[in-house]
Amino acid sequence: MRHLLTTRDLSRDRAIALLDIAEDMADVSQREVKKLPTLRGKTVVNLFFEDSTRTRISFEAAAKRLSADVINFSAKGSSVSKGESLKDTAQTLAAIGADGVVIRHPASGAPHVLAQSGWIDAGIINAGDGTHEHPTQALLDAFTIRRRIHGAASRGKGLDGVRVTIVGDVLHSRVARSNLWLLPTLGAEVTFVAPPTLLPADTSGWPATFGFDLDAAIDARPNVVMMLRIQAERMSAAFFPTSREYSRAWGLDDARFNRLGTDSIVMHPGPMNRGLEISSAAADSVNSTVLEQVANGVSVRMAALYLLLSGDREDA
Fold first, then answer.
1. Where does L-aspartate bind (predicted)?
2. Among 49, 95, 98, 310, whose Cα sits 20 to 30 Å from the Cα of 41?
3. Phi, psi (5° rounding) for residue 72?
């Protein structure tokens, strides 16, 4: 694998293979010594132009468990704050010998520019670019769903027939877009539920169905309900009247949670706005996979780094 920039071009076989490798990486985390020598001598740079907790720490833990050297870069306090361009930053990383770059950037398409520019020969992983994509989050979501549904017999399996309802701020969510392409590739049936103002104007070609009524979606008995964070930092206008009204119409409150099936899975990519998108009862229930998603993120990102940096990388 040359780069991991999007889930849109992942085939079913490649996606399942990556999830299977993540299963092997998860086994490592159960050992007394949670390290592999696979990437010894490799240098991974976490290049974060936006704030992050889970993703940055997860990638750092993943690289260190594979014995790579890790450099954490934050735009705050760096030359970026003085006006340094992405090109100059990339060339600096190339000069220090970075083998892999994990980039989070507020501009949609920034990882693609970095991968195709020729400024650096490192493998690039997209850790979230604007409102475009967040491929490793979708992969860890799929990994978590697969484990919950298939348990110990997960290896080699997809998500055929699994009904996934994704609720909330689809318009600004890169998590939603990455799941949009990955989950149907693995065989899942995806439905988006959101206020009309928080769905993109053009969804032609999207392999999903759309609705505005969360109660009707819950009555359809989905296997998975994934709540999205309201991304106020990306909103330049009022997309709904009040937080209270949003929570009443599109929040997973206690009443809606109690109507879900006992084996339904409740997910959230985090950070959660409790009481707005999801109630504490739902977030802390046995149906919730919120903490599992965080733990599984390390395994999935270990698999991605392994495929990206071990051996000879493909040219495609």
1. 82, 174, 229
2. 49
3. -100, 125
